[in-house]
Amino acid sequence: MRGMWRRAILLTIVCGLGAPPAQSSIQQLPMATGVVVYKSARRLELWRGSTMLRSYRVSLGLQPEGHKKQEGDFRTPEGRYLLNLRNPRSDFFLSIQVSYPNAKDRARARKAGVAPGGLIMIHGLPNEPRWSPEHYAQEDWTDGCIALNNADMMEVWMLVADGTPIDIRP
Questions:
Q1: Structural domain boundaries of the chain?
Q2: Superfamily of domain 31-169, CATH level 4
Q3: Is residue 131 pLDDT above 60, yes or no?
Q4: CA-CA-CA-CA torsion for 149, 62, 77, 143, nearest 10 degrees?
Q5: Which pLDDT band holds residue 125 (cuts at 50, 70, 90)?
Q6: Of 5, 77, 83, 168, whose Cβ has the fewest other Cβ atoms within 10 Å?
Q7: Is-contact 11 154, C-beta < 8 A?
Q8: How far apart are CA 87 and CA 14, in angstroms?
Q9: Residues 6 or more apart from 52 whose CB is under 8 A from it?
Q10: pLDDT tens digits, 101-119
Q11: How confident is the model over 133-158, as a mean pLDDT?
């Protein structure tokens, strides 16, 4: 219960929305137990057990096909990771870090003699946009992250706890 209140208070602070919602509305928030990203469909889904809670359109890295192999390849990784760190003050509207690279990714990169890269995030739009809203809505534009519009990012932020598993599929 305290975790729900913390999320509501954080939402209030981050967005300046005034007082936190009433306790009864917080209890009704469906918390996700898993996140699945389908790269080819540009979809992120929030799941609670075997029930899909929400589905969102996403943008990916500039080179979306294939697994991330090294730093600077503009690919979004594929595999099972955890959502492990939140940043309400990133260069984008909120961000949640994906635990890439894992041990397997580091070993693969070491064998290839390259750096695996890192700082893969789920995030909203840039705080200082360089392109039109249409570009962000229709194109892949990240360096390898998973991007949502700001309203969708707010929902994901509120419905996903730290440590939630994320499966990123081709």
A1: 1-30, 31-169
A2: L,D-transpeptidase catalytic domain-like (2.40.440.10)
A3: yes
A4: -70
A5: very high
A6: 5
A7: yes
A8: 11
A9: 45, 46
A10: 999 999 999 999 999 999 9
A11: 96
By C-alpha distance, which of 154, 138, 144 is closest to 37? 144
Q: Which residues is 47 bridged to in the sheet?
A: 34, 52
Can you tell me which residue has the tokens 């979809």? Answer: 43
Q: What is the DSSP string of 120-151?
A: -EEE-SBSS-SS-HHHHHHS--BSS-EE--HH
Q: What span, in angstroms and rounded, lies between the C-alpha atoms of 75 and 101? A: 13
Residues listed for the chain:
170
- The pLDDT tens digits for 71-92 are 999 999 999 999 999 999 999 9
Task: Inform me whether the pLDDT recorded for 28 exceeds 90.
Answer: no
Q: What is the pTM of this model?
A: 0.83
Residue 145 CA to residue 1 CA, distance in Å, equals 31
19 pLDDT above the threshold of 90 = no
